Task: structure prediction
Amino acid sequence: MKTFRQIFILAWLVMAVASPRAFAAGESEIKLPAPSLTGKLSVEAAIVAKRTERNFKGTPLTTAQISQLLWAANGNLPADAVSGATSKVVPSAGGLYPLEVYLVTGKDTVAGVPAGVYTYKAQTHSLQLIAEGDNRNLLANACLSQMWLARAPALVVVGGVFARTTARYGNRGVQYVFMEAGNSSQNLYLQAQALGLHAGAVGAFQEAQVSSVLKLPSGAIPLLVVAVGK
Result:
């Protein structure tokens, strides 16, 4: 006859296996599906069609869509596609790659990704949890109360660690980081269009507040907030 302790442990194991979870016990990382390297929309068509959007429906995004967007923003190239010039989708002065990309989601706004703030880890093509909960309203408030941002299912924040570039290029490196953030933003717009989504970028915000909401590490500076969705 099973003891009460044995029955309790057995019941706990059954519930643990049966209950879907985004994270395994003790983990805070989500592995993203591999990005597609081919699409149905030409670059020219995406350039013509892209525009800034500020009205978003409540349609959730898929993990595959988020995977593709984050890869376009700052992902790594496949090993067999790497040239001598770059190993990432965004060219970088001196191959120093100062950009860091973050994702902000709400409850059920991205399938398989709980509400929270995440850093995109290009090396493993995964999301690392920084802060739990829906922080879209806080981020929108930090962006001079542009509350339309909070209605987008996902917010992608492009940040930069300037010291990576200025250590080699001095003050000129500051301009290089901004140029690279522009490349990342353009990639996001074009990728969103190719996926049948819309994007809207914001550069007006209180830097310290945005950094606080995202819990950015020392040295990482937010440069751009891009809302994406239907």
Q: What stands out?
A: Residues 65 and 195 are 7 Å apart (CA to CA).
